[in-house]
Write a structure and sequence with these properties.
globular; 82% helix; 206 residues; mainly alpha
Length: 206
């Protein structure tokens, strides 16, 4: 892979990341509610799911999912249901979790925050198909596949991780600056966006 191709790939991924998805919105909400350090578990969960999705794409499971469209549709519906549930939970808990993070004793466990990040990303099974269709655009047939695939995967995960960190740091700062008001606003808005993402994802199937 040449530096020119990698640079084009980098610019393309940055363009994709410019619009926050459900995982980024969740990172915003959890960072505002529980602080940036604890919300890193959410980011790790999201990146772990991304890793497995890329691995599945590299192993050719995208073609398998395409063949068994019924199974894919079922998994899609599970993802929509989970995102809807998560969005309503974020709205219901808006503000209260922020107060917990800066005074009360009960906060979400690291395991719970990691699982939220993992499931939110894994709720989109078509990400496997996306990576399987996206990566080949930047892979040369004249070079070894594995090194190129590793470079593309690592680059994507690093960029996604940086965006998650930026969102998390910003939300954490707002929560500290404006106390519970920012946490309530971010949680409510984030929940609404997650619900909207679930509805939009369903409308894009047809």
């Amino acid at each position: 892979m040449t530096i020119e191709i990698w640079t084009i790939y980098l610019a393309t991924v940055l363009a994709f990341m410019s619009t926050p998805g459900p995982s980024h919105i969740l990172m915003l909400s959890n960072s505002a509610a529980y602080g940036f350090r604890r919300s890193l578990a959410t980011a790790c969960g999201d990146l772990t799911a991304n890793f497995f999705q890329m691995l599945a794409a590299g192993l050719g499971l995208a073609a398998l999912l395409t063949l068994f469209s019924g199974a894919l549709t079922f998994i899609k519906w599970l993802g929509v249901v989970y995102l809807l549930w998560l969005g309503f939970q974020m709205i219901r808990n808006a503000g209260s979790a922020s107060k917990q993070a800066y005074g009360a004793q009960t906060v979400a466990s690291v395991k719970t925050l990691w699982l939220q990040g993992f499931l939110t990303s894994a709720a989109n099974p078509t990400a496997v198909v996306f990576f399987a269709a996206f990566f080949p655009q930047f892979i040369s047939a004249n070079s070894d596949f594995i090194p190129q695939f590793v470079i593309l995967s690592v680059t994507y995960i690093i960029i996604d991780g940086l965006f998650l960190a930026i969102y998390g740091i910003g939300a954490g700062w707002m929560a500290r600056k404006f106390a519970g008001n920012a946490g309530k606003w971010i949680g409510t808005t984030g929940g609404a966006f997650v619900i909207g993402a679930a509805v939009a994802r369903r409308s894009c199937w047809d």
